[in-house]
């Protein structure tokens, strides 16, 4: 038995590709989201599998889902033999999950049989064996041609055995009968004290053992699943969170630890022109993780609403996981900045998933997101706020890494908001998520002149150039608009302080312009005065020149007269020259 167990429990690391030998063992898909992935195909075909755990961990639901999926999705009828719950109780319990067991029974795809086992009656009839069970189970199987069988729970069935040797023999005979009939069976068992089951033997004769656990930590319940062994097949060995809600049961496989996912091509607009202008390509890389951090009232949710509106306008699906406000409240608030998110919800492009952070544990939140994202297939996911999640620091860090890794592996653009300005997850811890993000937008409230103004700046944006300026932004009925923040000797001024400073600068500029125009007028007056003086001097000069010309002319005339007189005198004297 020891050597057989060592071979049967061979496993591989989680989320690795199944080895070639894993395909040798025939398997039957359970149809349970995630479980078939970690077992590389489902449960062993034609063999019994044990599903064990404490009360309330989901054993009966797991087994019922296995039968319902077999009947509805894989054309494999099934038999549910219960040793505790009556058929009508079982039908009522799973009806809330949308399972119509009565309908499947009417179609001949499912048979439900309740076997009543009473210890007092066993003692009265004497020796107790399983021959009657084989006849009853065989009839149910043959009546519908069943391929799948569930026995729930085995402790009740073996309650009449006091001899451990007989118990072991009958247990082996039951499992052998199942194998001989080629039935794929799930046998549920309750958790024992220090062992997987109460009898401590079922796990050794089962070909596959699945352990379900329902833990309560810090008053929060988390369900986990572990494949303890799987004969002849590799399987994931970690504990996996699984979710039970109105949509059934789903298991969250641990995301791959390899950073080998392919990046998405292209850029996406934020829906805020001023913010796009701060990024060199005009938006963020598609498929990146974006952190928007800031204290309450800085506008984180409204910025994400703008990004959602822009994505939906492009025809892309968006999903928002919100932990502090309902989807209707966010939709109403977004109308104040001119965004109509309701039309995107009605068009099927936008879906809100709202839940209190304390409703689930961290892994349950992650399992829920995993399932919802797989089903809705969004291009943009918003988690608002990330800082609402609570838990031990190690679990917080692991959850954040797995969440981001899950989104990146699908090429989904993710937007996270955080109430912490420094990007930390929790006030009392040094665990930060900013290093895990591709881009980080930090929002600040700046108080001045008795008022508060909102500002933002891009701390980092991997793979692109971006502005390092601090920008003020305003929110109005026309949307979010970015304005330049005044930076001067006294620091950054925003709001009315910026307006006052701009007004003072405008007044100073006006005074300088007026002084310049005054000096220009003075220069004109001086020029005109000088020109008048020049004109007067020029006129005086011309008058002097005219006077000089007249005097010269008169001198010439006198000289001519004197010359004429001398000639006349000379003639009279009788002398000639």
TrEMBL record:
Using the record for this protein, list the coiled-coil segments as residue ranges, or answer none. Answer: 503-554
What are the boundaries of the region Disordered?
Answer: 1-21
CDD domains per the UniProt record, alphabetical:
KaiC-N, KaiC_C
The alphabetical list of record keywords is: Coiled coil, Hydrolase, Kinase, Phosphoprotein, Repeat, Transferase
How would you classify this enzyme at the top EC level?
A: transferase
- So which domain of life are we looking at? Bacteria
Q: What is this protein called?
A: non-specific serine/threonine protein kinase
Q: Which organism is it from?
A: Methylorubrum rhodesianum
- What would be the name of the gene that encodes this protein? kaiC
């Amino acid at each position: 038995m020891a050597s057989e167990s060592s071979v049967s429990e061979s496993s591989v690391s989680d989320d690795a590709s199944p080895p070639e030998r894993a395909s040798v063992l025939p398997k039957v898909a359970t149809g349970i989201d995630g479980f078939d992935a970690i077992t590389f195909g489902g449960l062993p075909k034609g063999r019994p599998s044990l599903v064990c755990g404490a009360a309330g961990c989901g054993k009966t639901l797991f087994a019922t889902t296995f039968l319902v999926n077999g009947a509805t999705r894989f054309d494999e009828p099934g038999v549910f033999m219960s040793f505790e719950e009556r058929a009508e109780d079982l039908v009522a319990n799973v009806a809330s999950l949308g399972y119509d067991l009565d309908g499947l029974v009417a179609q001949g795809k499912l048979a439900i049989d309740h076997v009543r086992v009473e210890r007092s009656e066993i003692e009265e009839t004497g020796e107790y064996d399983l021959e009657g069970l084989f006849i009853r189970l065989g009839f149910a199987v043959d009546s519908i041609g069943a391929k799948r069988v569930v026995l729930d729970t085995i402790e009740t069935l073996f309650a009449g055995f006091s001899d451990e040797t007989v118990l072991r023999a009958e247990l082996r005979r039951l499992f052998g009968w199942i194998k001989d009939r080629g039935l794929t069976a799930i046998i549920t068992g309750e958790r024992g004290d220090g062992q997987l089951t109460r009898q401590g033997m079922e796990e050794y004769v089962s070909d596959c053992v699945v352990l379900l656990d329902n833990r309560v930590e810090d008053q929060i319940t988390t369900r986990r699943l572990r494949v303890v062994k799987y004969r002849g097949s590799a399987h994931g060995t970690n504990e996996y969170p699984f979710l039970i809600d109105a949509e059934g049961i789903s298991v969250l496989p641990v995301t791959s630890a390899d950073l080998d996912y392919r990046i998405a091509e292209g850029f996406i607009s934020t829906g805020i022109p001023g913010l796009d202008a701060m990024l060199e390509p005009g938006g963020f890389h598609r498929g990146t993780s974006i952190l928007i951090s800031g204290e309450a009232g800085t506008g984180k949710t409204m910025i994400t609403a703008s990004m959602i509106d822009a994505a939906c306008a492009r025809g892309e699906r968006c999903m928002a996981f919100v932990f502090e406000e309902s989807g209707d409240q966010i939709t109403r608030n977004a109308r104040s900045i001119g965004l109509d998110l309701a039309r995107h919800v009605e068009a099927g492009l936008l879906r809100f998933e709202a839940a209190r952070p304390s409703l689930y544990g961290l892994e349950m939140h992650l399992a829920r997101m995993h399932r919802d994202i797989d089903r809705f297939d969004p291009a943009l996911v918003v988690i608002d706020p990330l800082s609402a999640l609570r838990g031990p620091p190690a679990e917080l860090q692991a959850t954040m890494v797995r969440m981001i890794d899950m989104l990146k592996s699908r090429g989904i653009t993710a937007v996270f908001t955080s109430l912490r300005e420094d990007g930390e997850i929790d006030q009392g811890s040094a665990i930060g998520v900013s290093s895990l993000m591709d881009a980080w937008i930090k929002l600040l409230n700046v108080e001045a002149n008795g008022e508060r103004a909102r500002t933002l700046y891009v701390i980092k944006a991997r793979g692109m150039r971006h502005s390092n300026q601090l920008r003020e932004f305003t929110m109005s009925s026309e949307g979010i608009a970015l304005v330049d923040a005044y930076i001067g000797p006294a620091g950054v001024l925003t709001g009315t302080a910026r307006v006052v400073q701009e007004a003072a600068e405008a007044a100073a500029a006006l005074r300088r312009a007026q002084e310049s125009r005054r000096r220009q007028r003075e220069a004109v007056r001086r020029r005109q005065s000088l020109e008048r003086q020049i004109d007067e001097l020029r006129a005086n000069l011309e008058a002097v020149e005219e006077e000089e010309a007249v005097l010269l002319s008169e001198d010439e005339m006198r000289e001519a007269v004197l010359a004429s007189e001398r000639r006349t005198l000379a003639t009279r004297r009788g002398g000639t020259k």
